[in-house]
Amino acid sequence: MSQWTTTLRPGLPIAFDGEQFTVAEIEGRRILLRQSAVAGPPKLRQVDISVLLAHPSTEMSTPSPAETTTSAALLSGLAREDDDKQTVKVQHLQEVLTGYQLGYAALALDGEPRADCLPGIPLLHRYAVKAAELGIGVTTICRWTARSRRRGRPSGGGSGCRQGVGASCRRASVASSGRCPL
Description:
Layout: E1 13-16, E2 19-27, E3 30-35, E4 44-48, H1 49-54, E5 59-60, H2 71-76, H3 80-98, H4 123-134, H5 138-150, H6 167-177
Antiparallel strand pairs: 1-2, 1-5, 2-3, 3-4
């Protein structure tokens, strides 16, 4: 059986005790229900939340959430070589942002952090060093970083592309090539 949760909030349509209601107000343990599709003045009913939720006829009239595939399931379907490529890319990104391929000093590999990836080194310099190491452009590293931040991954702090692929990345590109590709 699939289960999901919904937020009990004003405006939520509810079927309760054989009638259709909309949540009008929530005050402490009490909930004020407005009867739906009634001619004339609205009919209100005040109910204790525990009574409402425990009543066998109570149904939240919200659509079920769309079926989604978890990240773990998606990643488990990757071919071995694709998984290895993604892992290496994430390690490069973590090294740029934190100085450590695994993202934390406690998990440091031998020789980490490298001189060009020390926490005190400006982030834009680390972008340029990593781009040169991988043979790609600085803006590619900026895009990886921005995408990582949009997806909620830790950024490791420091200065640099705080605005995503914006002014900081353009400055890095101008500094490395003398012209702005964006």
